[in-house]
Amino acid sequence: MQRIHYLITTTLSLALFACGQGNQHKKGNKHETDSLAMREQFATSPVLDGKTAISHMQFDKGLEVQLVAAEPMVVAPVAMTFDERGRMWVVEMTGFMPDTVGTGEDKPDGKIVILEDTTGDGVMDKRTVFLDSLVLPRAVCLVENGVLVATPPQLWFIENNKDKPGKRTLVDDQYAAGGNVEHQPNGLLRAMDNWIYNAKSDRRYRKVGNKWLKETTHFRGQWGITQDNQGRLYYNNNSENLLGDYFPPGLGGTNPAQQNAAGFDQKIVPDNRTYPIHPTPGVNRGYQKGTLDDSLRLVNMTAACGPMIYRADLLPGEYRGNAFVAEPSANLIKRNILSDSSYVVKGVQAYQHKEFLASTDERFRPVDLKTGPDGAIYIADMYRGILQHKTYITEYLKNEVKMRSLTQPLNGGRIYRIVPAGTHEPMPPKMYGAQGLVSQLQSPNGVLRDKAQQVIIDQHLVAAAPDLRNLLKDPLSQIHALWTLEGLHQLTAEDLSGIWKEKNAALKMQALAALPGVLSGSNVKAMVAALDTLSDNPYLAPAVAYLLPTVAKFDKVNASRLEDKMIKAYAPNRYVAAALVNNAVNREAVLLKEVITWNPDTTLVLRRQLEAVLKNMDSKANAKKMEELRKSLPRGYKIFNTVCQTCHGKSGEGIASMAPPLNESNWVNGNKKAFISIVLYGLTGPVEVHGKMYKAPEINGDMPGIGGSDEFSDADIAQLLTFLRSAWKNKADKVTAADIQQVRKLNTGRQKPFTASELAN
Fold it and tell me: Residue 586 — φ and ψ, nearest 5°?
C-alpha cells in the first residue's frame, strides 16, 4: 500500500530562529543534540504575517524574496498559472484537512481566483472569484476562451465570459476517480506539443475544434509537472527529488501491459537529501530511525512536489535550465543543476549542506513553483500547519499537531516572487497582435514563448504561418515555431523534410514527434524513406521506432520491414527495445517468437522486455475475478483503489520508484499476522518480493501503515486484506476483524513500522 508520505507536517516553533529579512546563506551554529531541550525551546509555533515570514527565510546571495499576495487576497493556494495579460489564476484548496481527522473536508469551499496588479507596484491588489463552491480543486489550465478545472472526480472546461463562468463541458468524468487527495491527477500542463499532461496520471488531453481528445500516455509523478526548452517533461513523487523523460512526451505510452518504458519516468536527480535550517521532528514518521538526523532535521525528502525548470533570464545565467523542487515538510525549495548527454538527462543538487531557499517558519508550505512572465520564480505557499492527509496520519503526528496548536488558522496563504536583489515592481509584458506574438517566440523567457505559441493557436492565426516558417532556422524559437505550425494544422511534410536535413539532432527529434499530424497516404513513401535513413542514427532511433504504428496505418509492408531492420540493429538497446514493445500491442507473443528465432540469446534486452510484458498481460487476465471481488468485498475494493493502487498499481504489479508488487507477493500470501502488522504499522527498509530485493532508491524505502487512521475500522482493514489475499493470482485465506484486533493487542503502544527481519522472526 502507501509509502511514507508526502505533504507532511513539521512541527517546531520558529520564533527563536528569525534570520532577518533578506538573509543569505551563512554558516550556522553547531547543531544541538539534546532533543528534549530542543523541544522545550521550540514549544510554540507562531503565525507570521507575509512580510515577517520573509525575514525567516535564507536564500541565495544576490536574490530577493518579495511578497506578491497574502491572505485574504489569496487563501490556501495549491496551483497557479498566468494568462496573456500577466494575471495570475490560482487554485485555492481551502477545505484540505481542517483538522487531524479531516472534519468537513468534503465541504464545497474551494475556489478558482484571478489575481491582478492594477497599480503596477508588483503587488496583487485585485481579486476576482471566477469559480467557487468547489470540493478540493487541484489544477487549472487556460485554453482558448475558457478554463480547464480539475475538481475530483471530474475535469471540466468552462468558458470565460469576461471573467465569469459560462458554458460548461464535461471533458472527463473519471479524471480523478479513485485515490485520495494526495494521490489524484493534477498539473494540467499545456506542453510544447500542444497536449495537456498531468501528474499522477496516464492521460493527456487536447481541444480540437469543439471536441476534446483524450489519449493514453506514460504514467507520471505525483504532484506538479513541468517542461524544459525541448518540451521534455519533469515531475516527482513525494520522496524523490526529480524524475523525468528523455524523449518528447507524445511518444509511446500506448501498450497497457508495458511498465517502466526505458527513457520515461527516469531518475533525473537521485540525491534526495534535504538541509532544513531548523529542527523538523514533526514529520509523520519523525520517531523512526533515519528519518531525522541527530539535530532532529529531516534527512531525505518526504513531501517533494511542484517541480519547475527555470527557463527565463531575469535571474543570473547560472540558474537557467535548473530544476527547482518544493519540499513543504522541511520548509524549503531545492535547486538542482541538469545536464544532457545524448538524450540522457542527469542532475545533481546545486549545493551540499544548504538549500536554494529555506525558512525557519514551519507554516511555510511551498507546494507549487512557476516561472512568471516577468522571469521571476513564483512560490505558492499554502501557509498552514497540517499537510498530512487523514488516510496516513499517525498518532504521533496527531499529538505533535495538538501540542503546537497547528490546526489553526486555516485561512492562510501567500504567493512570493524571487528576483535579483534590488528589482522593483517587475511588470509582466502583455501579449499583442499576430506579429508581436511571433516575435515573442524569440523571447529569452520560455514562459513567454509558451504563451505566445498558445495564443497564436487559440486565436487561429493561420496568417502567421509564413513568419513561423522563417523561425524554423532560429535556434531559440525553432521548436516553438514547429509546434505552433502543428497546432495551427499548417505543418507540412516539406517542413519536416527540411528539418531532417539540418544538423540539429534535437530539432530532428521534435520533427519526428510531430510526424503523426502530417503523415498521409500521399506522402508516406517519402516519409518512410526519410525514417529509414534517420533510423541509422542511434540518437534518433528510439523516436523512429515509436512512429512505426503510425506508419503502419498507411503502409504496413514498409512499417514491418523497418521494424525488422530495427530489431536486428537495436535489440540490445533498451530505449529502442522499449519503443518496439510499445508498438507490439496484442502481438507481443508473436514478436517474441520472431526475436527468439532470429537470436536465441536469453539476455537480449528486447526479449527480456517482451517477456516482462507477457507476464503483465497474464496478470491482467483476472478481470472477471476482480469484478467478483468488487461485489463481494466492496469496502476492501474501495480502500484498495483509494489507498493501495496509487503506489502498487491497479494490476498489483507495483509502480517504478514507488512500491513493489502485491500480486503473488510472499508477504500478501504468507503469514497472516505479518501481513496485518505491515498494513497497521507500516514497513521500513529493504524487502524481498518475488525473490527480488526492493530498497531505496529503486523504490521508496518506507511504507506507512493505516492502523492509526480514524478513516478505517478493523472490519474495513480486514476486508481490504482479504481482498488483497484473493486478488489477481493471490490465493490465501481471509482476514477477520478479530485477527486485526489480536495483532493490535500484541503490539499495544507501537508506532514505528516493522522491518522485514522483525516480521521474519
Answer: 70, 10
